[in-house]
Amino acid sequence: MAWSFTSRAPVYMQIVSRIRADILGGVYQPDQQIPAVRQLALTAGVNPNTMQRAFAVLEAEQLFITRGTIGRFITTDTEVLARAREVMRRETVARLVEEAAAVGISPEELIEGIRAYERESAADTGEASQETTTQ
Known about the structure:
Elements: H1 11-24, H2 37-44, H3 48-60, E1 64-67, E2 71-74, H4 78-102, H5 107-134
Antiparallel strand pairs: 1-2
Helix pairs in contact: 1-3, 1-4, 2-3
């Protein structure tokens, strides 16, 4: 199934964010070979040139290491991965703040909403683990 894209950002940058998230989320492990440009372009439903442009950004960020003709691999450099995590955090916060502002939610309300969400999630997790232990 093709990936879905929005009109907010260039497709290649959305691909960069998606692959970066996959790397940080463990879909791709350090030192794992990434699928070839054409293969991943087919999966994503985009032109191989668009995927190549995204790969160039990820290589510039040093998330990909090219090993000659063998292919591209995910970096094992923990500092590079930490920088990528920070970039992802900033992008996520910016997107969330923009979306909240568009519907009239202030940063303060957003922060309180996040705290409430965390409390509710913790409570739900606690209830789920209690149900498991009592059964």
